[in-house]
Design goal:
single chain; 477 residues; alpha+beta; Ubiquitin-like (UB roll); 3 domains; six-stranded antiparallel beta sheet
Amino acid sequence: MSDRDTMASAILINFAVYEGTIGQSCVMPSPTVSSLICNPNDSIQAVKEKLALLEVFDEKKQKCTLIFEGRVMEKNAWPIERYGIAKEGDMIQVILRRTKVEADDSELLKLTKVVRFNPEVLRAPNLDSECSLEVLSFTALPIPSVLQDLAEATCKGLLCNDPTPTNSGGMGGSYFMRDASSEQFISVFKPKDEEPNAENDPRGQVFEFGLKRGIMAGEGYIREAAAFLLDYRRSGDLGSSDAADHFGFSGVPPTCIVKVFHKNFIHRGGVIKEKIGSLQLFMKHELSSDDVGSGIIKEFTSGEVHKIAVLDIRYVNVDRHAGNILLHMQGGYHRLIPIDHGYCFPSSFEDVTFAWLEWEQSKVPFEPETVDHIKTFDVLKDLALLKDYGWEMPKLNARVFMTGTTFLKMCVERGLSAHRIGSLMVRHEDPNKFEISPIETIFEDANVAVSEEMEGNVFIDELKRLIGNFLDGGFIT
């Protein structure tokens, strides 16, 4: 291509730059608008480098996320045209957030205090009071005791403290909830209507879909609760009041769906009303895996990495980045805590993202205990449980969940590592390799072979046939 041809393909792109530190109102300030000449085949990384050269952000102090029409542009090697940018005047949102190095150390220390629940029962006040909170249960099934305790302790704190907006990097609204002593955070509340691209998104951006393909805006909260319930599930103890351990195999923090009223939430249009969303136990931690270098990451045990990998493959997580794996030193090792599961259970595999694929521990074979745990997965029982608790997963999403779980089980039976399994589920970042992942091909062929009206066990049988052919070296036909 000649220089003239290259110049002819150049287009002027607008950038709306948002600082990721959210103020007490949890409403993002008005953006700074910049413009930049780009070629549609420029990579995401090249665009970020251009913005840094123009001093739009400081690479040493800030992290940059690009969003176009409600979708995160996370594949740095992909050209911007792959995300639909092709004409003059297209607008890209630039979300900037400070690195942990720039954070206030004293505030960080405040966030790492131990959370203890007060066992006394508190009735939530009526709506004519300044606040109220209740756990939503859509059936007669018992609410796990750990969730009742979490809600009661949070409600006590809400009577004494205003919700504290988190520094979420501009990706939706969420709030730290303090306990009754006002000295420590006890939970995190994520309202349905303040999720990314939902009606009260702090950025003021509203789209039908969420930031990732296969998830609708405003549906993340129910996935947060589902991720906990399926991880926590053990034989007969979901409603037990004497369960000694409140965490499942992968360690998803206790999470439930609540209805909360407080005047200090975002209420646009002058109408103050209750908000529905997810409430999750605030976890003691020091940093996230995004805040440490390779030296610390090498210290992670393979077992800790594998518990995250099993969760992500099973749930088909399309948003497992290093920032949503928290680190806590416990007994001389780094405990890894998975959070932010609002982008699990999608309706497609297109945006599957696994940060742990870059970690050497993912290449280590699974321990026998982990293999035994994976063998117990029964996706049809999982779907039935979620339905009993109020969420009948949409058909296409349920089929993706069936595919992820079945693929995991069959790959583990054949001795594949988490790294190998994950690599078969993600798309290449290489712009010269635009093919879809092998699991997408399997999923599409199973959908063609089994009509939507047919039962889940029929779909799973077809999946087993296709996956078996693929793994054993045959053709997917």
